[in-house]
Amino acid sequence: MSPAQLYDRIGDVRLRVLLRTFYGRVAEHPELSAIFSQALGPYPQGGWPLHLLRLEGFWRAVTLGPSAYRSSLPAAHQHLGLTPAHFDAWLHLWRGAVDEVLPAPEADAMYRLAARMRVKLERVAASDGEASAGVRDA
C-alpha cells in the first residue's frame, strides 16, 4: 500500500480518532504521561489541542495527504530525557491504538511508519544524552 493510498483510506476523521485514542493512553501511562504533561500540561487541556493539530498535520504529511506541517520532528524530541524504554512504551501504545481504530492493512502500515520514526527519534535522543554527558564531564 502506498502512502497516498494510506491517507485516502484512513481519512481525517479516523486519523483524529486514532490520535486522540493514542494520546489519551499516553496521558495515562506511568512513564510517558509525566514527559507529556511537563511539556503540554494536563490532558486534554493546556497545550494539547495545538499539539494534536500539529500531529494531525504531521501524520497527513507522512501519509502524503494534504498538510501544511513544517516543523522538525527530531528537534521536538530533543532534551526530553527519552530512553529506549520510553520508545518501547510509545510504540506499544501506538500498536494498540492503530489496531483498535484502523482496519488491519492501514493499522499495519501506520505501525511500520511509527517503527521507522522510532529509530530516528531514538538516535536523536541518544545523541542528546551523549551531548549532555559531555557537558557534565567537561
TrEMBL record:
A matching Pfam family: Bac_globin
Keyword Ligase belongs to the record: no
Name of the protein in its database record: Globin
GO-annotated molecular function: heme binding; metal ion binding; oxygen binding
Assigned keywords, A-Z: Heme, Iron, Metal-binding, Transport
Organism listed in the record: Deinococcus arboris
